[in-house]
Amino acid sequence: MTSVEVSTETEDSGSGGYAAARLRLLQQEARSGPPRRAALAELTDDWLAKLFTGAARAAGVSGAALMAVGGYGRGELSPRSDLDLVLVHDGSASASAVSALADRLWYPVWDLGLALDHSVRTPAEARRTAAADLKVHLGLLDARHLAGEQSLTAALRTTVLADWRNLAPKRLPELDELCRERAERQGELQFLLEPDLKEARGGLRDATALRAVAASWLADAPREGLGEARRRLLDVRDALHLATGRATDRLALQEQDAVAAALGVLDADVLLRQVYEAARTISYASDVTWREVGRVLRARSARPRLRGLLGGRTAAPERTPLAEGVVEQDGEVVLALAAKPERDPVLPLRAAAAAARSGLPISLHAVRRLAAAVRPLPVPWPAEAREELVTLLGAGESTVPVWEALEAEGLITRLLPDWERVRCRPQRNAVHTWTVDRHLVETAVRASSLTRRVHRPDLLLVAALLHDIGKGWPGDHSVAGEVIARDVATRIGFDKDDVAVVAVLVRHHLLLVETATRRDLDDPATVRAVAEAVGTASTLELLHALTEADALATGPAAWSSWRGSLVADLVKRVGAVLAGEPVDPEPPVATAEQERLAMEAHRTRGPVLALRAQTDAPVEEGAREPLGVELLIAVPDQPGVLPAVAGVLAMHRLTVRTAELRAIELPDPVGGEILLLDWRVAAEYGSLPQAARLRADLVRALDGSLDLASRLAEREAARRRGPAAPPPRVTVAPAASRLATVIEVRAQDAPGLLHRIGHELERAGVRVRSAHVSTLGANAVDAFYVTDGEGEPLGVEVAVGVVRGVERALGSEGG
Hints:
Blueprint (H helix, E strand, L loop, with lengths): L2 H5 L3 H17 L6 H26 L4 E5 L1 H4 L9 E7 L5 H17 L4 E6 L1 H10 L1 H7 L3 E5 L1 H17 L1 H19 L17 H12 L10 H19 L8 H10 L5 H42 L9 E5 L2 E4 L2 E4 L11 H12 L5 H10 L9 H11 L5 H10 L2 H5 L3 H4 L13 H13 L8 H10 L10 H15 L4 H12 L3 H8 L5 H11 L2 H18 L6 H18 L13 H13 L3 E5 L16 E8 L4 H11 L2 E12 L7 E11 L7 H13 L4 H11 L10 E4 L8 E8 L4 H11 L3 E10 L2 E9 L8 H17 L3
Parallel strand pairs: 2-3
Antiparallel strand pairs: 1-2, 1-4, 5-6, 6-7, 8-9, 9-11, 10-11, 10-14, 12-13, 13-15, 14-15
Helix pairs in contact: 2-3, 3-5, 6-7, 6-8, 9-10, 9-13, 10-13, 11-12, 11-13, 12-13, 14-16, 14-17, 20-21, 20-26, 21-23, 21-26, 22-23, 24-27, 25-27, 26-27, 29-30, 29-31, 29-32, 32-33
Family: Belongs to the GlnD family.
Pfam family, one: HD
EC number: 2.7.7.59, 3.1.4.-
């Protein structure tokens, strides 16, 4: 049934005919995208027009019109969009007649289950409401006539648009502030794993705001790519509405595969990348447009005063030189009048470096002129180009907007072709705040504050920019990245030795943090392995700074004073090895506190606990220690200690950061062996539990009167489930230690994970010498140094059996 056929049905059956035609239209896959939205709007227009005609006749009302506003006014009807309608009347009919007309319009819409945003106003009321409410004014800018007296709609549209232009100096700053507040609440669409397509910065609301700015005649957005970006977001929203059957704008993780399939996109990652690219286009257009609005408003306010001072003459814009061919004008970086981009291939980098160093935006016109005219740089780059790149990267926070301006016009991928593969690439890890490309830039920003710590800041900054450049290639991104980094560093003009250093930094950018948090630093093999990989003290210095910059640029969960102290300790030990100092450790000596706890455990024949902050002061009851506190436990050696302690801590919602287990001999004349556990723990939320409560539950767990498995299963059952996690992976770390076998477990973090692992290791009959627990977001990577009953590393077959047992235990229990 066509929209014309719907409009010719009787009034009683019109709603049913519209509903059937609407359903058929939404089921026609061939009519997706703009054609379907236009057809849906036309179908709805015809139905509402017929509805209005019959309702006006029945209510005896003339001098009224029905208008579509907002998204419906723009003809952007998604499958579950609201119908934004305004009933306008000239005031000649009685209030009861107008109310009857409205009821005859709104109730059929509600009866079909359609969402409706409606109002009834005279033109004067509509104008007053728009003056008082910015959002109403914005909606009326897109008003479109549906039925009734067309002159009413035309007059109101003209008046509202004239008011908008007259009030632009007041309205546009309000709109800018509204957009900023929304961005603070919703985040940036181009970086979110579950973005709101409408409300997040760079989404459909911002695209609508740009239309409103253009309607003011005060400024206009750069239009290249803007229409396509808007269309892409609308297409994704349509598919989302159809996939969920709901009026939602949030692209949740569980819906992304279905939306990608509906749009004919390869997978959810490609879908997100397309969404990010669209959002980036809209965000950049917004930045440029709002900057232009500010410039125009400042010029307007200053012009009368300047004309008075100059006797009516117009002042020439002031231009301040910043670099060869680059000047500042009116708060932006522009090209000098004498600049020759077609003869100066270094000019884009020189202009970008000057802008970042000055903390100024680079003008849209300048970037476009550079993109259109500049010649490619020779390979290898001249020294000036390399120096300007380093200057750009070392400018700190002001690097980001300048980099985005170059990227918007394709200059970054022309300078660094390998950038294309990481551009807008999503990172499906809750720890990561940014896409891959933005993370690389943010790492350089963080590294810029650490350049005083290293002898070669240029190598640090370039390595920061390239450290994840291998993401998107098959296999280990560090291995792939090393190859790419060698090529890029050579192309931009570093010598052979410097290229080798950059390659090592990229290849091993995760080495320090992974080793510090997952390996036993008291094991000589650990420190020697890092020293061999790094090679020199100067490279170690650079790698230490890169590690910190990378973690800080990842997100708040990736770095803490605890991680920093572990990495610093490792760097100190590796530095000693590289300086030729011996690495054989002294046998660990128990502290006075540890001896006291061991003696108490021997006397009571039960566990003794102490919670301590990073200082020697005991933790006060109810204290909050988000970075973790030290938990010392002394207990007579017996089976089941590790799973019991891990289970009790999980039951009390304590996260384990590190865990060391060792047996100590009590001094004569007491004698005997006590198991000492020195762990770092932190509360998931709230305050730390009392040590007495922990001890009481540990006693019950050890004697079997506390059913830990059931308690932890209850917690697991109550836990809110996210997307399906990949299966756990358990391996033996090769050559990690000569003193023990290192079992590494990678799994989805969950309550009781460490308890289940400990229980399986106990069942396998191995002894845990130490455990190193690392949790990033939803992922846990735990390393266990285990030996046989004689304190020796496991044989190959035994180790394989332990690995398979842990995998089965975690797989069967949802680990």
